[in-house]
Amino acid sequence: MKIKNKNRIIYDERYYKSQFLLRKQEFQDAILNFKRIFSGLGCQIPDKSFSSLSEFRKWNKELARKHIETLRKSPITEPYFPKWKDEINKILRQFNLDDGYFIFVWLHIFLGVNSYQRPLFEIYTQKSSDSDENELLLKIYPHTRREDIDINWPIIKQAQKTLLNYKARDKSIYFEKDLKIYNEYLEIKKFPLGERFQKYGERDIYEILAENNDLTSSGIEKIIKRIKDLLLK
User: Fold this and answer.
1) How do residues 73-82 score in pLDDT, each as one tens digit?
2) How would you list the strands of the sheet with 119-127, edge to edge?
């Protein structure tokens, strides 16, 4: 069986927002205005940006030289001289972007990079060392959070279904487990708050059940809601 989409990178919302910004005319106008400010000082930024980081550094050094020259020649103690970091921050404020977008705007202006590359995690397949079959692996990063995996679980499951010998979740077995957790939930709810506090401390019911069943609080909450919805049908 062939595996479709062998490697898939899952991005956070910043990536998609950056793509939206690049297609927005107001954003491109702001970038053009940024370049005009420094072109007016004799420090031009190429239309297609610099081809390397070393070119940017040369430009930055020339800008610093112009600044010193302006300070020396001006009769005013501290004449206005634009700073590229301040101008980028103005763009962030204009489009209500948080500081996390600073690098994206900087890379786009000076190096022509057109995406915010901060993946949440990567899904990929490889041959198992124990057999000829493919196995599905997740590559996580230092900034990957548990909720990133939970939110994108349907995508992971879809990739899992392409594996040979994939078995669907045994709903009857899992329903019994979910029902057991729900009954535990009802038993704990019976305790008056004072007794519950003495027995379990300040933790809420979901935290108590999560610890008892080796699950997350959000996972327990979903199970309780699912059983409640089922009972109301």
Assistant:
1) 877 767 788 9
2) 7-11, 119-127, 134-140
